[in-house]
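Dear support,

I submitted the protein below through the web form. The confirmation email said the job was done, but the results page showed an empty box. After a refresh the structure appeared. I'm attaching both so you can tell me whether what I see now is the final result or a partial one.
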Amino acid sequence: PAMYGDLVKKQMAQGQPDSPQLDARVRDSLINLELLSQAAADKGLEKDPRVAALLNIGRMDQLAKAYLEDYVKTHPVTDAEIQATYDKAKAEAVEPEYLARHILVPSEAEANKLIADLNSKKAKFEDLAKKYSKDPGSAKNGGKLDWADRRAYVKEFSDALAGLKKGEYTQKPVKSQFGWHVIKLDDTRKPQIPPLDTVRGEITQQLQQQRVRDAIAAARASAKIE
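What the results page shows now:
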């Protein structure tokens, strides 16, 4: 039937546009399925317990997917829900973002030497980072890290960063699992929240995933599964 062809084509296409080659592959796949499944039936494999169990699991899986798709379709995500989710995320985004630099070295003594050089104005932070830092991702950029809030860093680094003012660097080495850091704060800013239209699709997907969880919870509750 045409419906079978559409289903197989959807599975095989994987984003490819319709083409005669795709249609030929779908046709061959359907022929193979028909011939091999009939051969299995003729051999009585449907009665094999393992095969029967697999067929039943496959049936349940497809029915479950159909139910969840129907639930999401009959409980559409509304514009009001999207707006409310966006507003909540925007209100919660209160943690400032930091533009920081650091120099990572193996020992506390080396870190103290770098701090002394900075204090005596013998060298600039960026030059010391390029020369001595063991962090390959930032050393070549003068120790510069990307804009990020404190959650992006390990606790020791995060706590030290939060105690700095713009333009300051740590006066004591900061130890973490990576080594010893000298940290400088270049700037801070409020979190950059993208416009709603740019994240509408992502929010919609999140809410649809919540619908799926709601459907599963409702089904389990009605069955009184402990």
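Response: this is the final, complete result; the empty box was a page-load delay. Strands lie at 97-105, 174-176, 179-189.
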